[in-house]
Structure formats: C-alpha cells, structure tokens
Amino acid sequence: MKRRYFNKLISASALTSLPIMGTADSKSWSLEANIAECCSCAIPCPCNFGRSTKFKCDGTRLIEISQGYIDGSNLAGIRFIVTFEMGKWSRIYADNEMNQNQINGFNQILPLAFKGFAKQAKSIEKTSLMVERERNLIKFSSPQSEIEMKPLLGMDGGLIKIDGLPYKTFYNYIQYESVKHNHSSLGTKWSHSGTNGFTSKMIVSG
Fold first, then answer.
1. What sign does the dihedral 136-96-81-104 (CA atoms) show?
2. Residues facing 64 on adjacent strands
C-alpha cells in the first residue's frame, strides 16, 4: 500500500471493526495531537510530501492528544505509541498511566481518527511508556521499541520548518533525524540511525 493512501486512512472518519472497540461511528469528534515519529526512509521522507516510496518503511510514532472530544467526552491526555511497517501491520501501545475515562476515549477514537493503524493492528496493549524531551533530543519507548531523535539543523543553526504538507497530520512540521530507532517483536527486528524523523501537530475532526 502506498503511504499516500495510508496517511489518508489514518485521518479518516470511517469505523473499522476491532474486537475491543465500541461502535462510535455516529458520534461527533475532534482532536489536536502532538506527533513525533522516526521511520527508515532517508531524509526527507517522500511519503509525508504525498509521494510514495518503493522501499520498505519501518516507523514508530508517538501520539499525545492535547485536546479533543468524542460525543462530549474529553480526549485530553490520551497517549500511545504505534510501531508499524507501512501498509502492512502495526503494533499499538497505550500508556498504562491513562485513567479509565482516557482508556474509554482511546478505545472510541482509535478506529475513527487513526483508522489505518487500527485496521492493521497485530496487537493493542496497555503498557508502560517512556517519553523524555530535552532541548535537542526527544526520547520515547515502549517495551519493544526505542527511539531517540534530534532536530536536523538548517540555516544559521535553526530548525527546518515545513508548511503546506498535504495531510492534516503534518501541521507545524519540523524536520528531525533518528539517533536511535530500534524495534524487536515476534518475527520483526530493526535498527536505524540517521534516517527521517519529524515532529508535527495533528488537527482532525469527524
């Protein structure tokens, strides 16, 4: 599957059927989330510009919902990590520090705002996550994935900011590069460094 189509699925508002999910297709929803991601593509990743890649794309994305609602319920504070092979599978790790209301909101919003990841999920589990932000380094991990990423600096040592990308996942896009991007799960293992990374804001509704 081309990443162009996959990115559209991630933000789609149609319901996908997962055993643990509720049937929230008739509910209105909206959210803003902070995104951090590394993948195996060279910098810059063509997928985020609406161009597909002919190479395998291994990725890990941190999603932290800063504000939002579904059918009147608050989505703020929902946090999870998705590790994936683009277009083929994903593994979703929900933060075990979320309260029950946040878990309920996660179960409802996942198949709506993140349909591509939900539809291809091999596993969805509640587990311990680590997220650390330093001035020039972002670190996040789940039990099976570990990411460290740093800004790719541009003119006069400033951040490289990109506007106008064709997906609602990529507002306020800032270019990063991976320092460490490791994953190990049943039948899958990778280790990347110096590959594409970014932070952005996701703003979607349905």
1. negative
2. 34, 79
Tell me the one-letter amino acid at 185: S
- Confidence label for 52 from pLDDT (cuts 50, 70 and 90): confident
pTM: 0.88
Categorize the per-residue pLDDT at 19 as very low, low, confident or very high, splitting at 50, 70 and 90. Answer: very low
Copy the structure tokens of residue 85: 């092979």
**Residues linked to residue 171 through DSSP beta bridges, in sequence order:** 201
DSSP letter at 159 equals B
pLDDT of 129 higher than 70: yes
Q: Which of 186, 194, 201 is nearest to 83 (CA)?
A: 186
C-alpha span between 31 and 71 (Å, rounded): 12
DSSP three-state, residue 107: helix
Q: Cβ(48)–Cβ(170) under 8 Å?
A: yes
